[in-house]
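Observation: inputs received (chain + zinc ion).
Thought: call the complex predictor directly.
Action: predict_structure
Action Input:
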Amino acid sequence: MKSSKHFKVLFLVIAIIVSTSYFFQESKYLFQVLFFIFGIYLLILYVGVTRYRLNYFSKAIHSGKEKGLSLTFDDGPNPNFTNKVLDILKKHQVKATFFIIGKNIDGNEVILKRIIDEGHIVGNHSFSHVKFFNVISPKKIVEDIEKCDNSIEKVTNLKPLFFRTPFGLTSPKIAKALKKVDHVSVGWDFRSFDTMAKSETKLLYKLKSKASKSSILLLHDNNEITINVLDAFLNFCKKNGIKIVSLDKMIGLKPYKE
Ligand SMILES: [Zn+2]
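Observation:
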């Protein structure tokens, strides 16, 4: 198997530290230089953990092959908003992908069924969606992902293939866990930061300005501002010839396991 960028960097840092220690062993600044190299390494690690798109620890798909835009909604099913999203998608006759949090299914089974019945795709977004998902043990990550799979399958009879890591965080632990579960990790090339949007006008402006240059858009179906601009955004896409393409077609993979 091809080694990850993380292992290549680790190997390089060790090589630099060993050679620096050898060549500068007499220098009074040796400790400071080593400390500086280690600091750079920590910085690279931080960027690798927080930048899903860099594929630093493990590989994920962040863009598509088709011309157009795939809509993805994270963090549902949500009893207040997911149905509204589905109504708007139905009105525009477009299909989206919902990355489901397993613990949100309980009590919202009808919404999850509706997502499938109306031709949308469901993906795994972990069961717990805990803040530090990337630092819990690989065994616990595997259990959490499988628990979400089981909860989705119980309601829909489908085994999702697509997985999206909570908060877009990665780590060697998630990389190790993903080797054990049979999933394709899917990110995005357009993160709207819709949950942090200060106003509908600002979010809509952002969506409009980047839509034609992107292929996979990250939105949230638990966020009121997102729902309030969705209809206007889809009108904009239609007017400007931006085709909404379902994620499976966009990345050329079937969304469910046999
Ligand atoms: Zn999420």
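Thought: report the result.
Final Answer: The mean pLDDT is 94. The pocket of zinc ion is lined by residues 74-75, 125, 129, 166 (CB under 6 Å).
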